[in-house]
Predict the 3D structure of the following.
Amino acid sequence: MTGDYAVIALYIAGMLGVGWYGLRLAKTKSDYLVAGRRLGWFMYSGTMSAVVLGGASTVGGVKLGYTYGISGMWLVVSIGVGILVLHALFARRLVRLKVYTVGEMLDLRYGGRTSAVSGVVMWGYTLMLTVTSTLAFATIFKVLFDLPNWAGIAVGGSIVVLYSVLGGMWSITLTDIAQFVIKTIGILAILLPVAISSAGGFSGMSEKLDASFFSFTSIGTDTIITYFVIYTFGLLIGQDIWQRVFTARTPAIATSGGITSGVYCLVYGLAGALIGTAAHTLYPDLASAQDAFATIVERLLPTGVRGLVLAAALSAMMSTASGALIACSTTTTSDLLSKLGLKKGGEVSRNRIATLVLGLLAIGIAMVVDDVVNALTIAYDILVGGLLVAIVGALFWKRGTRQGAYASMVAGTVSVIAFMIIDGVDANTPIYWGLGASLVVYLAVSFATPRTADSILSLWTRRLAGEDTTTETREQEPTSA
């Protein structure tokens, strides 16, 4: 394992070095939170791919392939479709608005007083996403160093927190580019062809496996639909994804780079399912499908190469964890603390402190919780059920009002929570009831209340056109939530 240790050590040193370099670039709030809105096509596409393809897409995608065969690709495919739709329909508008959070967009469109509710929901979602990504570090460090879970979480989480605190989005962007390259080489260029070849190619796999492993629907049609509802819609409105959109230098870069990223995600999803299928062919009696990724890497790859592929998996986890952490920090400072009047100190320093505190909180939660899948499911369901209608309405329906948006958020969130209690956290029904209630209430209340003031809509339209109206926006914002 000496060669593997060397590769991982170089990888970790490189991430910390890049994080330190990012400290020199993060001089303003814009630098720290959205990389100065200066990313070109390659950096934008690479970082977008890195943030959405985390441990669940890599280790989890192989696990689903091991269990269901080719049909295991649908989780990651639903993520890729979400990225494609986001950039085909929303990205140009979002870049022109020049905001920092989803809540700021809602306040701008509806005239204020909505970001407190959306901020609470988004804060819970981004924190739990950080926790689940941090928890995944234990898998890699257990394989490499036989560390207990808490130690692996502490090591991986500390690295992410350190480079995120230092340079904010600039450090995260630079590390994500390195992680994107490592991930592409390790998973797509090395592990995928080695796994398929070792399993005897497609003909060898088809001879040894049941035909269901080559069916696109063996995972279940209801599961596939639920993946699209939760993850595709979730990616359309998540703060961690929007914050990456805000980093693009131009609307055109966001659109083309995002569509490229979406296609990459589709390829990555198929690759993970095929690696899992090959793993089932080679090692059909694993005690747990969760071990499929680690097993195929450990048994098939030579020293050094194995370290590179494990670094690729670590890259996937770190990119998602850092993206979720900076999103949680931004929501905390922009949507929550600012509404309470807590604005002491410089903006960059305030965001660094928030990132540090939230990062340590996420590490602490990950250490004491064995399985946070249910918590993440709750967060995604509330995010989509509570916020999707108000956000889509803000972007595409001028008749939507602040009262309608506020009521829809409350109705959707309450409905999701109520049906989780009635039907269970794992049930598919809460998200559908939440979306239905949110839509009905949004339409009814918006039609029953006065239209949004022309001055607000005029400011919104001008911001969508790319005009700088930040002074007017500040004058229009309410002083309290």
The CA atoms of residues 13 and 380 lie 34 Å apart.
